[in-house]
Write a structure and sequence with these properties.
13 strands, about 25% strand, about 300 residues, 11 helices, elongated, two-stranded antiparallel sheet, alpha/beta
């Protein structure tokens, strides 16, 4: 079984298509096809099935992906035995919650690039639902995310910090009443995916007081949410560190809510079977050095 075929298999899953995997690996698309067919012959199972234009893992393919990741990690470990004696190299894939990536990772990324210029750092934003799918299949090496009771048995999960949230609205409009029990909030609530721990905590705290949200707008990027809120089109709930600059500049104002006292953990997670490369160990070190301070703003 050729390690190149295993790497190609992993790349196809990460990139989504043979064409993108070929571009990522520097191969022709026909080479990627050959590698996948060779691996399927070696294993005696189909790895993918086509659904429309997409290649989707079969059940056995998903199992093979996890084991392939372990083999690739072992090979990389052998190849990195001397890394501690010289410049770090290779690739590090990190999935990060969007607000962390946008508003709290500057110093982490800057120091990591300075200390490991030979490492290709691949950062990708994702929700808890997305990361809980990609991490078990070794589509990333590390993840930084928000979660409350998420502690899978096959993961190493470490709490890096806790963050608080605030409800914010443009200073050009009157803030909504989010505290008086038993009424309906007519101002639109602008928020992201339903599985957001901030959204769940906020909506639960309102429900406990019998407060109803009459209108909810679901968007999928932090930038779009902030844009509509600053235009006075509604209010949102956000980690305080992500809006502290706008609050200080007078672009946003807070609307006191029953969820203001809630604290949400920021978690660092990776698979228990993952061997932490020197690059991954360095990234974790830099995260622990800078991220807590960035989140305490």
């Amino acid at each position: 079984m050729d390690i190149k075929c295993l790497r190609t298999f992993q790349a196809v899953v990460q990139c989504g298509t043979y064409a993108r995997a070929a571009e990522h690996l520097g191969y022709t698309q026909s080479t990627v096809t050959v590698h996948i067919k060779q691996l399927e012959r070696d294993l005696g199972i189909p790895l993918f099935e086509r659904v429309g234009r997409r290649m989707v893992l079969t059940q056995k393919g998903a199992e093979a992906l996890t084991q392939a990741a372990d083999i690739i990690a072992a090979v990389d470990r052998l190849g990195s035995l001397a890394a501690a004696e010289g410049e770090l190299s290779g690739e590090l894939r990190v999935d990060v919650a969007e607000s962390l990536l946008c508003y709290a990772m500057n110093e982490v990324i800057s120091e990591f690039r300075e200390r490991a210029p030979g490492v290709r750092l691949r950062l990708r934003d994702g929700s808890l639902a997305q990361i809980s799918r990609t991490l078990p299949h070794a589509e990333c090496d590390l993840s930084l995310l928000y979660a409350v009771d998420w502690r899978p048995d096959d993961m190493v999960v470490e709490t890096i910090a806790h963050v608080s949230t605030v409800a914010v609205v443009a200073t050009t409009v009157a803030p909504p009443d989010l505290q008086t029990s038993g009424h309906s909030v007519t101002m639109p609530f602008i928020i992201d995916e339903p599985d957001s721990v901030f959204r769940i905590g906020f909506e639960r705290s309102l429900a406990e007081r019998g407060i109803d949200l009459a209108d909810t707008m679901e968007l999928w990027t932090t930038h779009a949410i902030r844009r509509l809120v600053t235009l006075g089109m509604g209010f949102t709930i956000a980690p305080r560190f992500a809006v502290v600059d706008e609050l200080a500049a007078g672009q946003l104002q807070t609307a006191p809510s029953p969820s203001d006292d809630l604290a949400f953990p920021v978690l660092l997670a990776y698979r228990k079977t993952t061997w932490l490369t020197p690059a991954a160990q360095l990234f974790i070190e830099v995260v622990k050095k800078h991220l807590p301070a960035a989140l305490s703003r």
